[in-house]
Amino acid sequence: MKRETSRDSLISLLLPLALIFGLVLLLSLNVGGGGEGREATPLEIWLKVIVGYLAAGTEIAAAIVIGGAVVRGIFAYLRLLFSRSKQHFDATEGVRLQLGRVLALGLEFTVASDILRTAVAPTRQDILNLGAIVLLRTLLNYFLEREIQQGEQRRLPEPELDRSLR
Predict the structure, then answer these.
(1) In terms of Cα–Cα distance, which of 155, 154, 153, 151 is closest to 143?
(2) Cβ(100)–Cβ(147) under 8 Å?
(3) First to last CA, the chain
(4) Which of 37, 81, 143, 162 is such that its CA lies 20 to 30 A from the CA of 125?
(5) What are residue 36's phi and psi, to 5 degrees?
(6) Taking a C-beta distance cutoff of 8 angstroms, is the pair 70, 101 a contact?
């Protein structure tokens, strides 16, 4: 049990460091003009237009998901603020966790949009930029998910925790 905990803490330290190192490495690589000189075919032009619309739709979906969650979170927080509940901290933590889950979903939508944008005839520089963006968003998502898991563990009531141990 103790060995698993130390291994998990080592992984939780090394994974973000590796992602940050990979991000810095990808950003430092600047590949010059790999493929800009060739002429695009009519099919590639149409595919780029269609994929551009799909990527824009995905970004709009991400904005709607995140914006809706923010508005819902504000209303839930205001409701909690004006209620006379003694569980204000726990309820505020619940609003925060719910917003964090939706932000993670929004990050997934934005990663999908970036992948779509580089799907048709990407250059090496496009692929490197995509790798850097995906690494950065993965790093953000990793920390967000970790925070959500820690928050959910703090919210577990003691009786349920005792029942799970038996």
Answers:
(1) 151
(2) yes
(3) 17
(4) 143
(5) -75, -20
(6) no
